[in-house]
Amino acid sequence: MKKNEEKVSFGEALKLNWRGFMLVYKQRPQMIVSRLVAPIWDTVVSYLVIWLSARVIDELAGNRDVERLKFLVIMTLAVTAVSALISAFIRRWRDIENVATWFEVIRIFINKKASLDYADLDNPKTHELISAIEMNRRFTGGGLFRVVGYFENIFRSLFQIGGGLLLTISFFTSRSTVNTGSVISPDSPLITIAVAIALIVAVFLSSHMKNKADGIWASKAKTRVYGNRAFGHYGWLGCDDGAAADVRLYEQWKICGKYVANKVSTFESKGLYAKLCRYPVGVYYAISNGISILFSAVVNAFICVKALAGAFGVGMVAQYTTSTTRVFFGIGSLIQLYGSLKNNVPYLKLEFELLDMKNTLARGTRHVEPAREDEGIEFRNVSFKYPGSDEYVLKDVNIKFRTGSRLAAVGMNGSGKTTFIKLLCRLYDPTEGEILYNGVNIKEYDYDEYLNMFGVVFQDFYITDFKLGENVSAGPITDPEKVMECLEEAGFGDKLREYKDGIDTYIGKGYGWEGVDVSGGENQKIAIARALYKDAPFIILDEPTASLDPLAEADIYSKFNEIAKNKSAIYISHRLSSCKFCDEIAVFHEGRIIEQGTHEALLSNEQGKYYELWHAQARYYT
Question: What is the pTM of this model?
Fold first, then answer.
């Protein structure tokens, strides 16, 4: 972190932390009540026990009135017992709210990520930002969740100081019976002022040293994030079932050792954090603790001197030593919180950078109507380049396909086919030109309604460790009959019949050993079934048979019309044999559509790209 980024005013720190606190409070209002009740109750009970204990000791050292002793002991025991029960209840309540608040903070970020424009979520800078936030939360707790603890500690410190002063104020008014009236008398105002000044100086220095140490940790957040990411990946690579074979065959454990056993890496014995622990962080912490111990010794000595001079009894010595120490630590905690609030700013800035990201994709308000046969989808002079890039991925794309037709998009890797689909589905908007549905720019339609028109199987589809039925329905409500019908259509029926739990079978072992591992081709069939289950008017298959064996691939091809039914279908594939099943073929090359027509028409052009691609693959399917 750069030096100019470390300089944060207290006003800015307080403002950012307060904003974070209010954000969490709105998410979980009852949290603040539990956080306030706990410090108030703890302070009242602890000081009441201190006060009662002092009276018991005084009575034992003084008159030893049995009846008074009984009363004081019974009161002390009763207060301790009752407070223990109530404290247990409050702690349980607070712990429940603490866990709930943790999940509510996570929910804030989940909701934000879900609401981001796909273009922003797909941006590498956003990936890096989210990764940094998650690492900070996981390994340091910095950011939104930490502010809850900060404000609780502020309340706790204020109550601790207030209660301690109430029990300590009589210390300054107590007069010694052997007071000589000299400057060195324990009742001398100069001595009292000197002790007060020592208190202030000690608190400030101790807290300042600790804040300096904490500030150094905060300034190394980026280094810590990288170290944790490296360890999180390489440290657990050997536990990854999917990587086990490669780790052994290629001896990748040696790479793991480079990152997790290297003594000069981030967290090792000769690494950055070890050096910081020795100096200066370790020195600052040592000075801070040393000052605290020295102050306690000086104050306790002064209290004992006044007690020896007859100002008060031995019971009050216990009360004053305990209460002044608590006042000291309460003030110290407030000063340290000043530094903590500032040290939390870098984490909060990252989080608010994400939370403040605005949606720029037009949402539209127009109701989506069924596709008209004479209109369908039209790309009109569409060009596109990804955000932050000067290179066009698509250039001057013009194509129109009718409702209910079958369109195949073919071409070499990187020719723009998948980007074409992302624009159609409004994951991105065109850089230039427009896309029309029923003759209307798709930006005018209600965004969610428009998305619901498409059932898509992308190349990088994702199957979770949920139940098979949940993977297909992709929602909280599952229609078992419809799920099985879609799985059958996608060619997964035979496999389904092998599962004793049917569609309630877990995919993968993330939720238990009874889950089943499925092959890449089987996963692809599940993804196709999911697209069919959505029952959207448009079905889009992006390389749907890439992981299938030849027989399964042939089965999908033969059922293609049956699978698509009366839907409009777009089919992307490197395997041109699939194109024979489509009404029209668009040939992509270097971001442009260079040919368009039926399989027979394109194949008749011996100078065309389709002809070249077809004959390059012909030996595989002739």
Answer: 0.77
